[in-house]
Design goal:
By secondary structure, this protein is mainly α. It contains 34 helices and no strands.
Length: 507
């Protein structure tokens, strides 16, 4: 056999490996093929190809494994069980940039499914290897590594801590300064995933100078980058007053308010989330948002979006109003109540209704003036209806009841209370009747109106337990009127009159 023929055998073998691995990579990109590939034993065939002498075979084998692991947690488990991860991590340090990208993709695909699988990546030294990749010159390698670190971090505080301990944060902050948009996006997203768990992790990110760099990108024309930037700032702000103040000090506002009119829905949602996380801490931080026009902008935004996109804005108004009478009045004067009323009637989801009801309660419970703003928007019957509706979720019923009671205890606007006389159960009715008794005792005009509108007649028809709070309030109302008027409107009085008429003998 000649030398040429012998070499041909090797070339043929190399071509076959190449063809096999490329075909399998193509097949693995279509979900319908995955199960067939798995049943054919593709994992154990790919494993030796990860150590192939030909670099392109190695890279394509890694890419295929990534696609398989990405598809389901079962296949990700199979990659771990085949003991492929240590091999990948070991070769990450020595191989070329194409291989590094593919290997980082495999680690990301395994880590994304569950904390346990992410822990497997940590256990085999994956985090340290990925952090080394963040120091590479090639932006594609950095991006793939940052992405994998993000998927590890998002699961839990302990996994995030292992990413921080490996020294990832300063390098991720440096990635924010790179010219490539894709790398900036992934770096901001990963920092957001690290920050979200605990104040300590957020503090670590802040100490690396992240806020200043994130703040510089809030007016970027790239929507996907802005989404991640506002998400990261929200995750920093949510933990404590001091962290929220640091975000404010970076002069994010009023520039961020402009983004509530962005074309991208998720940019708008993330800006309103950031405002919610800032205002929830203190009245002073809430005032900062009011002063820069943030509250009015959020109220406008609620009118232009639907569903879960409304949720952060709805909650922001509630947090703000909860702090003080003045802030609650600011929400009322900015037409926040009609907007919340609109959300309540338009949104079918119970968790959104529950948040809206909670916010309405926070606005209306301060003073009679606040309660009147809620009552004039005809919200009290709506709250009662949600509380009494058997199809309302437990949380929605509880929040509706709490909001209704807290507003009723302050409400002295009788036209708003009157519809409740006819529909409310006794546990709510006692609060309604109590408010009537407070107002009627010193307002003659209200007493007259109460008689002509049928309110007094309705009160006489209420069946209350003798000695109950409800009966005491009814007695208090009756004492505001002459005895004969009360008798006249009592049930059965017309029969008594007719009986007297029958027994009456004219002189």
């Amino acid at each position: 056999m000649s030398q040429r023929q012998i070499i041909q055998v090797f070339e043929q073998y190399q071509k076959s490996r190449m063809q096999f691995v490329q075909t399998v990579a193509d097949l693995a990109s279509r979900p319908q093929n995955i199960e067939i590939l798995q049943n054919a034993g593709v994992m154990s065939l790919l494993r030796p190809l990860m150590l192939d002498v030909v670099p392109i075979v190695q890279q394509t084998a890694a890419l295929t494994l990534g696609r398989l692991a990405d598809h389901s947690d079962d296949l990700a488990e199979a990659v771990v069980k085949e003991d492929i991860l240590p091999q990948l991590v070991h070769s990450l340090a020595s191989q070329n940039r194409f291989y590094k990208k593919s290997a980082a993709f495999v680690l990301r695909a395994v880590a994304k499914h569950s904390p346990q699988l992410a822990q497997s990546v940590v256990a085999c030294g994956g985090v340290d290897a990925l952090v080394l990749c963040l120091e590479e010159f090639d932006p594609g390698v950095k991006e793939a590594a940052a992405w994998a670190l993000g998927y590890i971090s998002r699961h839990s505080a302990s996994l995030s801590q292992s990413v921080v301990d490996a020294g990832a944060v300063p390098l991720l902050v440096l990635c924010l300064l790179e010219p490539e948009l894709a790398l900036k996006r992934i770096a901001a997203s990963t920092l957001s995933d690290i920050c979200k768990h605990t104040p300590e992790l957020a503090q670590t990110v802040v100490e690396s100078g992240a806020i200043a760099h994130l703040a510089q990108m809030i007016l970027s024309p790239d929507a996907k980058l802005k989404r991640q930037v506002f998400s990261a700032l929200s995750q920093i702000s949510k933990h404590s007053v001091s962290l929220a103040e640091m975000v404010i000090e970076a002069e994010i506002f009023p520039a961020a308010v402009v983004s509530l009119r962005d074309q991208d829905e998720y940019v708008k949602k993330n800006v309103s989330t950031l405002m919610r996380e800032v205002v929830k801490h203190t009245p002073e931080l809430s005032q900062v948002i009011v002063n820069c026009g943030g509250m009015a902008a959020v109220i406008d935004y609620l009118g232009n979006c639907h569903g879960n996109l409304r949720l952060p804005g709805i909650m922001m108004l509630g947090y703000m109003a909860a702090h003080s009478e003045n802030l609650a009045m600011a929400v009322i004067l900015s037409k926040g109540v009609p907007q919340l009323s609109l959300c309540l009637s338009e949104e079918p989801e119970h968790h959104i209704k529950a948040a809206t009801v909670w916010s309405i309660g926070q606005i209306g419970h301060h003073t009679p003036e606040h309660a009147k703003a809620v009552a004039t928007a005809n919200l009290l019957p709506k709250l009662l209806q949600l509380y009494m509706d058997a199809s309302s979720s437990e949380d929605l019923q509880a929040k509706s009841k709490k909001a209704l009671k807290s507003i009723l205890q302050k409400c002295t606007y009788l036209p708003g209370l009157e519809p409740l006389l006819y529909d409310a159960p006794s546990n709510i009715l006692k609060h309604v009747v109590c408010q009537f008794s407070k107002v009627l005792s010193h307002d003659s005009k209200a007493r007259r109106l109460f008689v002509t509108s049928g309110g007094l007649k309705k009160v006489q028809e209420i069946e209350a337990e003798p000695g109950s709070a409800l009966q005491e309030h009814i007695n208090a109302i009756n004492s505001c009127f002459p005895e004969e008027i009360v008798r006249y409107y009592s049930p059965g009085y017309s029969e008594v009159l007719l009986e007297r008429l029958e027994n009456y003998q004219p002189a």
